[in-house]
Amino acid sequence: MNIVVVGLGALGTTFATLLKKAGHRVFAITKDKYLSALSERRIRILGIWGEHEAVLDGVFAGIDPLKNERIDIIILTVKSYDTAQAVAMLAPLVAEDVIVISAQNGYGNYETVAHTVGREHVLLARIIFGARTVTPGKAEVTVIADKVRIGQPEEAIPDDIIVRIASEIDKAGVPTAYAADVSEILWDKILYNCALNPLGALLECNYGSLAEHEDTRRVMNQLIGEIFEVAKAHSIKLHWANPKGYIDHFYTKLVPPTKEHYPSMYHDLKAGKRLEIDALNGAIVKLGSERGVPVPVNETITRIIRVKEAMSLGSK
Fold it and tell me: Is 74:101 a contact under the CB 8 Å cutoff?
């Protein structure tokens, strides 16, 4: 397959390295400021999946060099605040058979991509392996809680096509499977990220530490409870009938295998980067406002993170 990976952060570097090593033609689009560091097109990952290195078929800051290439798949791994700009840039590459995979955090990315290129071209991926950028083009895979799950939320792409794509990514070394219920699975991760990411960033600690303390557990439980109320108001289908069922699963099944992990929001704060709070707790605040559902804990966390972000950006 001919694959374009958009965004060479930790996730993009991981996908691009393993897919290229598996024999696919892989191009990457990254920000102009990183091109000099990637002039040799050599990228690498290390960590729990071992050490792997690959030389990409091209690394560019835009799509012009790709306009005469036959593209099969575009994997979008940019931060949520860059989604609209990225997909607008990519739209000319999305020909009849091209599939765009939104492999991103939070709520709203799939909707933005589908609005621009059409739902018949878009797959949603739930990513729940953790990785961090070491240097441009080098990433460390730190943890995995489950396979990547790929599906089409509106049944706009035949299942056999999705299964084939998931199989190719899985064979490349990124554990991946087809999921008919990908939207519900994504909301599982939104619950997980909204509870853990901002608190881990603010308190500068790993997930296990958050679960150890009664005070942080109470805050996380309140965040989760509010999300269930918002989902109910919007008729969003969740895998769990009530917060208690999810909370039990959260502490017994989800946190333990990722207890040493620090959230991406923590690393982004340290690096003076923008944060994805508006696709996580900020999205819950927006959805709550649309239906008149009060979400005071999510709103408070969102406001504190925004101030933290502003202070971090101002210091750089």
Answer: yes
Catalytic residues: 189
Q: Which of 149, 180, 211 is the last residue of a domain?
A: 180
Task: Yes or no: say if 159 and 171 are a contact pair by the CB < 8 Å rule.
Answer: no
Query: Alpha-carbon distance 197 to 267, whole Å?
Result: 10
Same domain, 253 and 151: no
From 152, 180, 208, give the residue that closes a domain: 180
Does residue 52 share a domain with residue 162?
yes
- Alpha carbon distances (Å) from 111 to 107, 119, 153, 282: 8, 9, 10, 16
CA–CA dist 305, 291 (Å, integer)? 24
**Burial class of residue 251 in the structure, from the number of CB atoms within 10 Å of its CB (0-12 exposed, 13-18 middle, 19+ buried):** middle
* The residue count for the chain: 316
Q: Residue 9: which domain range?
A: 2-180
How many domains are there within the chain? 2
Beta carbons within 10 angstroms of residue 159's beta carbon:
12
Q: How far is CA 297 from the centre of its chain?
A: 23
Q: Along the 316 residues of the chain, how does pLDDT read in single tens digits? A: 999 999 999 999 999 999 999 999 999 999 999 999 999 999 999 999 999 999 999 999 999 999 999 999 999 999 999 999 999 999 999 998 999 999 998 999 999 999 999 999 999 999 989 899 999 999 999 988 889 999 999 999 999 999 999 999 999 999 999 999 999 999 999 999 999 999 999 999 999 999 999 999 999 999 999 999 999 999 999 999 999 999 999 999 989 988 998 998 998 998 898 999 999 999 999 999 999 999 999 999 999 999 999 998 886 5
Q: Long-range contacts: 158-163, Cβ < 8 Å, 24+? A: 161/99, 162/123
- Rounded to whole angstroms, how far apart are CA atoms 283 and 240? 20
